[in-house]
Amino acid sequence: MGFFDTIMWPFTWAVSFILSTFHGLLTAVGMDFNSGWNWVISIVLLVLVIRIILIPLFVKQIKSQRGMQIIQPEVQKLQAKYKGKKDPVSRQQMAQEQQALFKKHNVNPFMTCLPLLAQMPIFFALFWMLNRMREEQNQLDGYGALTAAEVQSFDGSEIFGVGMSDIFLPAFSADPTRWDVVVLTSIMIVAMVATQFFTQKQLMSKNMSEAALTGQFAQTQKMMLYVLPLVFVVGGVNFPVGVLVYWTATNFWTMGQQWWVIRNNPTPGSLAEKELNLRRAARGLAPFNEAPKPVAEQPKPTGKHLGQTSQPAKKKKRKK
Which residues lie within the region annotated Disordered (predicted)? Predict the structure, then answer.
C-alpha cells in the first residue's frame, strides 16, 4: 500500500462502506446488481448522508457569514484607519484589532468555508477509489469495504453507454473520439458549474446586507462567483463520471438548502428579508426578526383593587 493509499484509507473505507450498503439495499429491492443506475443512486444517497451529517456545520457557517456581514462597517473603519500603512508594526496592530473584533462578536471567518473543507476528504476518497477500481489486484481482492464482485460491477457498470470511470479528456483525445462520454460529461459539468454560479449569485443578490455589499467581503464574494465555476470546469474534464455524479448532486443540495434558508431565515437588512416581510404582511403576520414590544408595567394593586372597601371617616364629636 502506497503513502497516499495509507492516508486515504480511512476515508475510502467509509465511502466504500456507504456505497456497498446502499448498493446492497437497492439490489435487494429489485435493481440489477450490475446496473450503472444502481451505482448512481448509491452515490446520490452517499451525498444525502454526508450533507445531513454536515447540517450542524452548515448552521455554524450561516451564523458566521451573517456575523461577518454585521461587522463589515467596523471592519471598513479599521481598514481605513490603517490605510497606506505597510510597516510590520501597523500590520500587526491591525491584525490584532481585527482578531479582537472577531472575538467580540463571536465570529470565525474560517467557519464560512468549513462545510466545503469537510467534504473534501470524501470527494478525494471517491476520486481515489475510482482510480483504483481498474487495478487487477483490486478486481480480485476487492477495495475498502467493496467486495471483488462489487468492484467489478462498479467498474463495468454504465449509464447511457458511459462507464462510471470514464473521463472527458481521455475520451475527447481518443481515436476515434468517445462522443457519448464527451456529451454526458459535458452536460454534467455544465450542470455543476450552473448550480454553483446560481448558488453564489443568489447569496450575493438577495442575502447580503447593504453594508456587506461594499468592501473586502463583497470583493471576496464576487471573486468566488467566477473563480469556483472555473475550478469546476478545469477539474470536471479530469473527473470520472462517478465523481461528477457526486459533485453535481452536492451542488444541487447546496443550492436547494441555501434557497430554503434565504427564503425562510434571511440575513437582517438584506433584500430577502424585505421580500419575506412583504409575504408575512400579506398574511397578517409580524415582520421577521421584529423585536417584541416591551410590556407596560402594570401599577401595583392597592387595597381598593384587591376588593377592600374603604371605611367612612369618623366625625369628631362636638364638645358641649
Answer: 287-320
- Burial, 315: exposed, middle or buried (Cβ in 10 Å; 0-12, 13-18, 19+)? exposed
In angstroms, how far is the first alpha carbon of the chain from the final one?
125
Q: Measured between alpha carbons, how far is 188 from 171 in angstroms, rounded to an integer?
A: 15
Provide the 8-state DSSP code for 167.
Answer: B
What per-residue confidence (pLDDT) applies to 284?
Answer: 85
Amino acid code (one letter) for 117 = L
Spatial distance between the Cα atoms of 13 and 11, rounded to a whole number of angstroms: 5
Quote the pLDDT of residue 303. Answer: 52
What DSSP line would sit under 59-126, residue for residue? Answer: HHHHHHHHHHHHTHHHHHHHHHHTTT--SHHHHHHHHHHHHHHHHHTT--GGGGGHHHHHHHHHHHHH
* Crossing angle between the packed helical segments 271-282 and 179-206, to the nearest 10 degrees: 80
Q: How many CB atoms lie within 10 A of CB 278?
A: 10
Percent of the chain with pLDDT over 70: 84
Residue 96 vs residues 86, 91, 99, 212, 214: alpha-carbon distances, Å: 15, 9, 5, 22, 23
* Cα 139 to Cα 16, 119, 132, 148, 149, distances in angstroms: 14, 27, 9, 5, 8
The span from the CA of 296 to the CA of 246, in Å, is: 56
Residue 196 CB: number of other CB atoms within 10 A?
Answer: 23
**78's grid cell:** 479599521
**Confidence (pLDDT) at 190:** 94
**How much is the pTM?**
0.76
All three cell numbers of 84 = 497606506
Q: Tens of pLDDT along 144-160?
A: 888 999 989 998 899 99
